[in-house]
Design brief:
Blueprint lengths: L30 H17 L3 H8 L3 H9 L7 H10 L4 H14 L4 H8 L14 H19 L4 H17 L1 H6 L3 H16 L2 E2 L2 E2 L9 H4 L4 H18 L4 H12 L4 H8 L3 H19 L11
Antiparallel strand pairs: 1-2
Helix pairs in contact: 1-5, 2-3, 4-5, 5-8, 7-8, 8-10, 12-15, 13-15, 14-15
Length: about 300
């Protein structure tokens, strides 16, 4: 399998669910909390089970399960998340990692996290390794995902964002396979995960860290040349941050990561023609910003 050949999706069936429809996730749920809650909700909605079914099986009140699946109230303890995941046949290892990160984001202490898991298993023998095609996909794209994340984040944040991406994909792997293009689904997960960690200014992601790790800079040895190139790069990155998301991703992969158009097409799950079109439009915009035409004689003061 190559990035050009996405994994084959399995058959999916939908089952009508009696009873009241589950409400949406409340707006104040943080990004780390959503990282595991979205896949949990989607798995529940695809399962055909009702809240009453889950309540009977895990022995928690139906109202409490509904609140958990909507992100209402206090951050949930691991015990109920684990029991729901077991009933929904979800892998609990990536779920636990995402749950514990979100707990810290919710200002829970390490003692609280430890107490939550003291009496509840974190792992089960059948859920300690991702599916084979997930592992193969990760091997194919992980290095490129890290390079993309490096353009926005420092090393620790980069590694965490990419690790979270593959945990989220593990939890929602059936949905990824059933999507129009697994590569596109996975890229959207990566982008969302990276952007939630990226500093923004005026609603635009900052790319300043990338100025010190570009392909061009790596080829320069003269300190003066490097200083000049950094100044030019910072100006370029400010302009790149103003691009639409698809054009920004293409330019980061092409200009900062040095990836070929064919590789970018495979990573983003988009046709090669779309990649080349995005690059052309982005290049024209950047040239208009960085190298504006001189004023005409009639407009000269």
């Amino acid at each position: 399998m190559t990035p050009t050949d996405p994994p084959v999706p399995p058959g999916r069936s939908s089952t009508a669910r009696p009873g009241r429809k589950l409400g949406p996730i409340v707006p104040n749920v943080g990004s780390a909390h959503r990282a595991w809650l979205d896949p949990l909700r989607e798995t529940y909605l695809a399962s055909g089970l009702t809240l009453s079914d889950l309540s009977t099986r895990v022995r928690f009140a139906k109202s409490k399960i509904s609140e958990l699946l909507r992100g209402v109230g206090l951050y949930p303890r691991w015990e109920i998340v684990y029991l729901l995941a077991a009933e929904l046949d979800m892998p609990n290892w990536p779920l636990y990692r995402l749950w514990s990160q979100a707990a810290y984001e919710a200002h829970k202490s390490s003692d609280w996290v430890d107490n939550c898991t003291e009496r509840t298993p974190i792992l089960t023998a059948t859920h300690t390794a991702p599916p084979l095609d997930h592992r193969a996909f990760r091997e194919l794209v992980e290095m490129d995902y890290l390079l993309y994340a490096q353009a926005f984040l420092d090393d620790d944040q980069r590694d965490a964002a990419v690790s979270d991406t593959f945990d989220i994909l593990w939890l929602s792997w059936d949905d990824a396979l059933a999507s129009h293009d697994t590569r596109r689904y996975a890229w959207n997960v990566l982008r969302a995960t990276v952007m939630t960690r990226t500093p923004h200014r005026d609603g635009r992601p900052e790319l300043g860290m990338a100025a010190f790790d570009t392909v061009i800079l790596q080829s320069l040895t003269d300190p003066a040349d490097r200083v000049n190139q950094i100044a030019e790069s910072l100006e370029l990155f400010t302009a790149i941050s103003r691009l639409p998301s698809s054009q920004l991703d293409v330019m980061v992969l092409r200009r900062l990561c040095g990836r070929a158009p064919e590789t970018v097409s495979a990573l983003l799950g988009l046709p090669l023609a779309a990649i080349r079109s995005d690059e052309r439009h982005a290049t024209r915009f950047l040239e208009s910003v960085l190298c504006p035409p001189p004023p005409t004689e009639g407009n000269t003061p």
